Automatic annotation (TrEMBL):
Highest taxon of source: Bacteria
PROSITE patterns (UniProt xref): SAM_MT_TPMT
Keywords, alphabetical: Methyltransferase, S-adenosyl-L-methionine, Transferase
UniProt entry tagged with the keyword Transcription: no
Name of this chain's protein: Class I SAM-dependent methyltransferase
Matching Pfam families: Methyltransf_25
InterPro entries the record matches: Methyltransf_25, SAM-dependent_MTases_sf, TPMT
One Gene Ontology molecular-function label: 2-polyprenyl-6-hydroxyphenol methylase activity
Gene Ontology terms describing biological process: methylation
Ranges where the Methyltransferase domain occurs: 68-158
Amino acid sequence: MHVNDASDRSSSRSSAEGDAIGRFERLYADAERGGAEVPWDLAAPHSLLAEWTGRSRPDGSGRRAVVVGCGFGRDAEHLAGLGFTTLAFDVSPTVVRAARRRHAGSPVRYEVADLFTPPAPWVGGFDLVLESMNVQALPVGLRARATAAVGRLVAPGGTLLVIAAGRRPGEAVDGPPWPLTRAEVESFGAAGLTPALVEEITAPDGGLRWRAEFHRA
C-alpha cells in the first residue's frame, strides 16, 4: 500500500458520487432544451403515495414534511394540499427552477440540496419524510449512505414513507435504476426507525413495487 491509497479511495468515492448525482442534472438540463424526456415527469402524484394518503388520511396541520429528490414537485404539492408545511429538495438546480415555475404561488419551499450534506436544521426536522424512487437510482456503493441520510431527516414521533421499485434477491439488474430487495427496503429502519408496514405490490406493468412505512419513537 502506498501512502496515497486512502486518499485515492476517497477520491474514487467522491467521483462516483459526483457522476451519479450529475446524471440527474444533465438529464433535466437536456429536457429543458428539448433534447430528452424525463420518464417520471407526470401530472399526478405517485399512485402509491396518493393511495397511502387516501387510506391513512394524515392531518398535516402544524406538521412539517420533506420530499427527497422532489423532481418537478408532483408529490410535494400533494402533501402541501394535505396541510403539511412542505419542503422539497433536489440536487438538480434545473429541476428546482422548473418546479418553482410550474407551481408559482405554491406554499411548497423548493430548494437545491444534496441528500448527503443537508443543512443542519433539516436533520431530525420533519414529521413526514417521503423517499420515492430515489435511492434505487444510486449505485450500490452509495446506497447505504443514502438510506441512512434519508432516515436522519425524520423527527421524533415522525414517519418515513419509502416507495421503490423492487427485485428479488439474486435477480440481475442492468441499471440504473437498480431496484431494491426487501432487505434493502427494510434497512431504512436501521437508524432508530421502527418498520410499521412493508408492502409488496404488483404494478400495472407486472413489476414489483415496495411501499414501506417507518416510525421514529
